[in-house]
From TrEMBL:
It comes from the Bacteria. It comes from Streptomyces dioscori. SUPFAM superfamilies: (Trans)glycosidases, Beta-D-glucan exohydrolase, C-terminal domain, Galactose-binding domain-like. This is Exo-alpha-(1->6)-L-arabinopyranosidase. Keywords: Hydrolase, Signal. Pfam families: CBM_6, Fn3-like, Glyco_hydro_3, Glyco_hydro_3_C. GO terms for molecular function: alpha-L-arabinofuranosidase activity; beta-glucosidase activity; carbohydrate binding; xylan 1,4-beta-xylosidase activity.
Length: 979
C-alpha cells in the first residue's frame, strides 16, 4: 500500500468543513495572536493523524512550509509551534547531549542474537531521549538517526561498529527490535522517530561521496533492500537517511527508490532525510557535480523522496533560498513542498508535539537517564553480547580458587568510546570489574613501553607539560616524567603518545602539539603518530593525523623543533629531527612480572575506536597490532593460564594467537559496564551465549576489493564464501553443551528439541538455514532464515519452533523482475552456527520453473546473469539503470535464453561513445550472430536506437542457449531485443 501522503495536496475544502464543524474560523493566514492552547484541529488528539496534518499544513504560508524542509526547523510563534530538529544520534545510547547510559556498540548488541533484549535496550534509549525533553539541550530532538542497517558485507568498513551483521535477515531482526523499542510499538503515538541509515549500498569510507556501489538487481533485492524493508514494514522506523555514495551511478541523495520503493513498504508516512552536507555534494562546487546549482539539486532530491535537508549546520538559509528559487524557476511546484512538509508534520503529530502535555510520553523527565534499571540493562547487554571464541581444557570459567588474578594489556585500565557514543556517566574498566568481582585489588599493567625521545643531534629531550591542561611539546635539556611517554601501538604503524607527566594524550591543535587529550578523539583524530625507524637506528616522529585526509599535505609531515625555544612543529622529512627511542620501562617485561605465578592472567587487547577504522576511515588491515600480539605471547609463556579478551568492533585475523592461547573472549567496546560484564562471563556468573554476526576471515586475501558490492559474483559473506573461515558466521561457544534432536516440519515452520547436556544453566542460539540444491541461478551456500535464543537449565529439553514459510525461499528472478520460489528440493539445516549443523531435513517446494528468457521482448540490460568489464550506471539523472562498458570487449551474459525462432534483427538503446555491439552465442567469443554499429550520441544521457541484422544462425539455434552482448569502451546500453 502506498504511503498515505506520498502525493499530498492541501485539502482546503475538507479542512474548512472540519473547522466549521468545530466552530473555529480558518482564514488563509491565521491570526497572529494564536496561542499554543487554541483549539485548532491539528491540536485535537481525537482526530486522525492525516486530518490533523492537513489542517496544520493549510494554515502555513509557503515560506513557513519551506522552512520545515531544513534539519533545523524554526518555531512558528503565531501558531504556538516550537522549533524542531531532525537527527539526534542514538546508535547505542543517546549521544552528544551529556551523560547518558552507554550500551554496547551496535555490532555487539546484535551479537546477543536476542531481539527481546534489544527491544528493551531500544526502549531505554527512547526513554532517555525523552528524558532530555524538559530542558531541550542544543542538539536534542525526537527524530533519531538510528539504527544503522547497512549489512556488514566487508569487515574492513570503517563504520563496522555501527551496523549489526553481514546477514540482512539478522540485521533487520535487530533493527526491528531496536526500532520498536525506540518508537514504543505504536506507530500512531511515537516515543521517538527512528531513521534507518544509510540508504543505500553504503559500506566503504574511501572516497565515499564519489564511489558508486554497483547493485545488480539480485543484490539490490535479495541483500541490500532486505536489511531495510522488514523494519519499515514493521513500522519500527519512520524514515531513512540517504547515503553519501552513488548507487549505480546516481547519488543516493536523489535515488528515486526513496519514493518509488521505500514508501510502498508501509501505510504510514515516512520522513526521509539527507546525510550531513550531502546536498552540497550534488552541485558543481561539490564532489559529485551532478547538478549545476543547489536549486536544481534540492529540487531533484525533493522529487526523489527527500523531505529534510541536513546541511550547513544550523543555517537553513542556503536550503530555503534554493527551494524558493526552484519554485520560482518552475523546477518545483508548491505541491512538491506540501508533500515533503506533510511528511515532516506527520511525524511531529505522531510524536505528540501538538497533544496536550506533549502526548503519551510528554511527562518523561531526566530521572530516567542512567537510571539504576538502565545500568542493570547495560550490564546484561554487555555480558550477553560477549562471544567465547576458544576454551581449551575448560580454561574458563575461572575457578573459584582463582583469587590472585593479574589483568594486563593496553585496554585493561580504560574504556574507549566511539564517534557516535554517548558520554559515559561512569566507567568500569576490565581491571576494575574483575577487582570488584574478587573483592580485592588485582595486579595489572597496560603492557606498553614508556619511552623518552632524545634528539641525537642536540641531546635535548621531547618534553610535555606537567599540569592537567598540558603544554606545547618542546625539546629541552630536562628529564624526568615530563620527558616520558607511554606508547600505545594500534597497528598499521600508528601509535599514540600519552604523557607520563599528566596522563593525557598528545595531539595537534592546529598550532602546537599539546598533551591535553583524555583519549584520541575528534573528526580528524589528531593524536596519531608513527615512529619510523631509520637505517642508523634513529627514529623520525611522523604526524599521522590530519594530513592523511587533506590534499595540501599530500607529503608526509614530521616533527622537529621550529621555535626558538625548541617548540615542536611540523616540518618536511628532510628537516625532521632524529630521535633515539630510549626505553624507560618495558611494557612487556612489566606485564610478564605482573602475571608470573598468578592463578590466572587476563590480557585485554584490541582497538581504539577513533583510530582502527571509523567514519571516513576504512581499516587498513584486520590484524591485531604487532606489539599487542607479542605481548600476549610473552604473557602466555610466563603464565599458561592466560585468557585473552579481544575488545574491538570487527572481525580480526588473529593468526597464531588463536592456536596458542587456551581461551579467547571477544567483546565490542561495550559501554560503561564493560568491566563488570567481562567479570560476569570470565567467572561464570553469566554463561556466554553471544554469537558472531560476521564471518571472521583468516586474512585479507579472502576478500575482494572493498568497492566490489556484488556478493554473488565475488562470493562475499557466509552466504557465498567457499573458503575456510577462522570463525564462521553464527559461531560462539558456551560453558554448557547442547544436544539437538531431529528437526521436524510443523505448521508454519520447523521444530527441534534442544537439550542442555552441561552442568550449568545456559543459553543456546538455535539457527535455521536453507540451501536450494538446484536452481537456474547461483544460490547461497547457506542462508539464515530463522533463529531463537533459548535459556535451558541443566538437563532441560525444550522444543524450539522456527518459522519458515515456502515464500521465504523466494529469490529475485531477473528474467521477469519478480520474486519466485522455484520448484525443487531445499535443505533445511538447524544448528549452532552456519558451519555447526546438528540436524537437517529437506523441503520439497511446489513452486514454479523459471522459463527460458524471452529475448524477443524488451530486455533491460541490467538484468544480466553475468558480466565482465562493465559498471552499472544511471540511465538518466532522474531514474533508471543502464550498463556502461569500461573497456573494449566488455560483455553481458543472458543465460538460458531461447532466441525467437526466425529472429532476424537485434535492436538496442545505446548512449555514449561510438563503437559496436556484438551479439554472440555460448561465450563472449562464440558464434557471432550480428553486429550493431554505434556512431556515438555525444552524451551519456542521450540514447539512440541502433539495429543490426542477425545471421541465419540465430534462427537455426535450437533449445536454450546463453546469449552474450559484447560492448565497446564507453558505450552505455539500456535495453535490447532480438526479433
Amino acid at each position: 500500500m502506498k504511503g498515505k501522503r506520498n502525493s499530498r495536496r492541501p485539502r482546503i475544502t475538507l479542512v474548512l468543513a472540519l473547522v466549521a464543524g468545530l466552530g473555529v474560523t480558518a482564514p488563509a493566514t491565521a491570526a497572529p495572536a494564536a496561542a499554543a492552547g487554541q483549539a485548532y484541529p491539528f491540536r485535537d488528539p481525537r482526530l486522525p493523524v492525516d486530518r490533523r496534518v492537513d489542517d496544520l499544513l493549510s494554515r502555513l504560508t509557503l515560506d513557513e512550509k519551506v522552512s520545515l524542509l531544513h534539519q533545523w526547523q524554526p518555531a512558528i510563534p503565531r501558531l504556538g509551534i516550537q522549533a524542531f530538529k531532525t537527527g539526534t544520534e542514538a546508535l547505542h545510547g543517546v549521544a552528544w547531549l551529556g551523560e547518558a547510559t552507554v550500551f554496547p556498540q551496535a555490532v555487539g548488541l546484535a551479537s546477543t542474537w536476542d531481539p527481546a533484549l534489544i527491544r528493551r535496550v531500544g526502549s531505554a534509549v527512547g526513554d532517555e531521549t525523552r528524558g532530555f525533553q524538559q530542558e531541550r539541550p542544543t542538539g536534542w530532538g525526537l527524530n533519531l538517526w538510528a539504527p544503522v542497517v547497512n549489512p556488514l558485507r566487508d569487515p574492513r568498513w570503517g563504520r563496522n561498529e555501527e551496523g549489526y551483521s553481514e546477514d540482512p535477515y539478522l540485521t533487520s531482526s535487530m533493527a526491528t527490535a531496536y526500532g520498536t523499542g525506540l518508537t514504543g510499538g505504536d506507530p500512531e503515538h511515537l516515543k521517538t522517530a527512528p531513521t534507518l541509515k544509510h540508504f543505500l549500498g553504503n559500506n566503504n569510507e574511501a572516497d565515499r561521496t564519489t564511489t558508486s556501489s554497483d547493485l545488480r538487481p539480485r543484490v539490490l533485492k535479495e541483500y541490500e533492500e532486505q536489511a531495510f524493508r522488514p523494519t519499515i514494514e514493521a513500522d519500527a522506523a519512520t524514515g531513512v537517511m540517504s547515503s553519501y555514495n552513488l548507487v549505480n551511478g546516481r547519488p543516493a541523495t536523489v535515488n528515486p527508490a526513496l519514493d518509488d520503493d521505500v514508501r510502498t513498504w508501509t501505510s504510514q508516512d515516512l520522513l526521509n532525510v539527507t546525510d550531513a552536507y550531502a546536498p552540497n555534494n550534488l552541485i558543481g562546487t561539490g564532489s559529485q557535480k551532478y547538478y549545476d546549482t543547489l536549486a536544481e539539486g534540492n529540487a531533484a532530491a525533493l522529487k526523489a523522496g527527500i523531505d529534510s535537508f541536513t546541511t550547513d549546520d544550523t543555517n537553513s538559509v542556503p536550503t530555503t533560498t534554493a527551494v524558493t528559487s526552484a519554485l520560482a524557476d518552475g523546477l518545483l511546484k508548491e505541491s512538491d513542498v506540501d508533500t515533503a512538509a506533510g511528511h515532516v508534520l506527520d511525524i511531529r503529530v505522531r510524536l505528540g508535539e501538538f497533544d496536550p502535555g506533549g502526548g503519551r510520553y510528554g511527562s518523561i523527565d531526566k530521572s530516567v537517564v542512567n537510571s539504576p534499571a538502565h545500568r542493570k540493562l547495560a550490564r546484561q547487554a554487555a555480558a550477553d553480547a560477549a562471544v567465547l571464541l576458544k576454551n581449551a581444557g575448560g580454561a574458563l570459567p575461572l575457578k573459584a580458587a582463582a583469587k590472585d588474578v593479574a589483568v594486563v594489556g593496553p585496554l585493561a585500565d580504560t574504556l574507549y568510546t566511539d564517534w557516535y557514543s554517548g558520554t559515559l556517566p561512569y566507567a568500569v574498566n576490565p581491571k576494575a570489574g574483575i577487582a570488584a568481582r574478587l573483592g580485592s585489588p588485582v595486579t595489572g599493567s597496560e603492557g606498553v613501553d614508556r619511552i623518552a625521545l632524545r634528539n641525537t643531534a642536540s641531546g635535548a629531550y621531547v618534553t610535555a607539560g606537567t599540569d592537567a591542561d598540558g603544554e606545547a611539546l618542546k625539546e629541552s635539556a630536562g628529564g624526568g616524567t615530563a620527558a616520558q611517554f607511554d606508547v600505545f601501538d594500534w597497528g598499521a604503524g600508528i601509535v599514540t603518545l600519552r604523557s607520563a607527566a599528566n596522563g593525557k594524550y598528545v595531539g595537534y591543535n592546529w598550532s602546537n602539539f599539546v598533551n591535553d587529550q583524555v583519549q584520541p578523539n575528534g573528526w580528524f583524530v589528531q593524536q596519531q603518530f608513527a615512529l619510523e625507524e631509520q637505517a642508523d637506528g634513529t627514529y623520525l616522529l611522523r604526524y599521522a593525523g590530519y594530513e592523511t585526509r587533506e590534499p595540501w599535505w599530500s607529503n608526509p609531515v614530521y616533527l622537529g623543533p621550529t621555535g626558538s625555544d625548541g617548540t615542536l612543529g611540523l616540518v618536511a622529512k628532510s628537516e625532521a629531527a632524529h630521535y633515539a627511542r630510549d626505553v624507560v620501562r618495558s611494557g612487556t617485561e612489566e606485564a610478564v612480572a605482573a602475571v608470573r605465578g598468578k592463578d590466572a592472567a587476563v590480557v585485554v587487547v584490541g582497538s581504539m575506536p577513533a583510530i582502527n577504522g571509523r567514519e571516513n576511515d576504512d581499516r587498513e588491515d584486520m590484524s591485531l597490532a604487532p606489539s599487542q600480539e607479542a605481548l600476549v605471547e610473552a604473557v602466555r609463556q610466563a603464565n599458561p593460564r592466560t585468557v585473552v579478551v579481544v575488545e574491538n568492533s570487527y572481525p580480526t585475523t588473529l593468526g597464531a594467537l588463536q592456536e596458542k592461547v587456551p581461551a579467547l573472549l571477544w567483546t565490542t567496546h561495550a559501554g560503561q559496564e564493560t568491566g563488570n560484564a567481562l567479570a560476569d562471563v570470565l567467572f561464570g556468573d553469566v554463561n556466554p551465549a553471544g554469537r558472531l554476526t560476521q564471518t571472521w576471515y583468516r586474512s585479507e586475501a579472502d576478500l575482494p576489493s572493498i568497492l566490489e558490492y556484488d556478493n554473488i559474483k565475488y562470493d562475499r559473506t557466509y552466504q557465498y564464501f567457499k573458503g575456510d573461515p577462522l570463525y564462521a558466521f553464527g559461531y560462539g561457544l558456551s560453558y554448557s553443551s547442547f544436544r539437538y534432536g531431529q528437526v521436524r516440519r510443523v505448521d508454519g515452520g520447523y521444530e527441534v528439541a534442544v537439550t542442555n547436556t552441561g552442568g550449568g544453566a545456559g543459553d543456546e542460539v538455535v539457527q535455521l538455514y536453507t540451501h536450494q540444491r538446484v536452481s537456474r541461478d547461483k544460490q547461497p551456500v547457506k542462508q539464515l532464515k530463522a533463529f531463537e535464543r533459548v535459556s535451558l537449565k541443566p538437563g532441560e529439553t525444550r522444543t524450539v519452533r522456527l518459522k519458515l514459510r515456502e515464500k521465504d525461499l523466494a529469490h529475485w528472478d531477473v528474467t521477469r523482475s519478480k520474486w519466485v520460489v522455484e520448484s525443487g528440493t531445499y535443505d533445511v539445516l538447524v544448528g549452532a552456527s552456519s558451519e555447526d549443523i546438528r540436524s537437517r531435513t529437506t523441503l520439497k517446494a511446489a513452486g514454479e520453473t523459471i522459463p527460458a528468457r524471452d529475448l524477443s521482448r524488451t530486455t533491460r540490460a541490467e538484468n544480466f546473469d553475468d558480466y565482465e568489464g562493465v559498471r552499472l550506471v544511471d540511465e538518466s539523472k532522474a531514474r533508471g539503470t543502464a550498463v556502461g562498458a569500461s573497456r573494449d570487449g566488455a560483455w553481458l551474459k543472458f543465460a538460458d535464453a531461447r532466441p525467437a525462432a526466425g529472429a532476424r534483427e537485434f535492436r538496442a538503446r545505446v548512449a555514449g561513445a561510438a563503437g559496436k555491439v556484438e551479439v554472440r552465442l555460448g561465450s563472449p567469443s562464440g558464434t557471432l550472430l550480428g553486429t550493431a554499429t554505434v556512431s556515438g550520441t555525444g552524451s551519456v544521457y542521450t540514447y539512440a536506437e541502433v539495429s543490426a541484422p542477425l545471421s541465419a544462425a540465430a534462427g537455426a539455434s535450437k533449445g536454450r542457449q546463453d546469449v552474450y552482448l559484447v560492448l565497446g569502451d564507453g558505450m552505455r546500453l539500456s535495453t535490447f531485443t532480438l526479433r
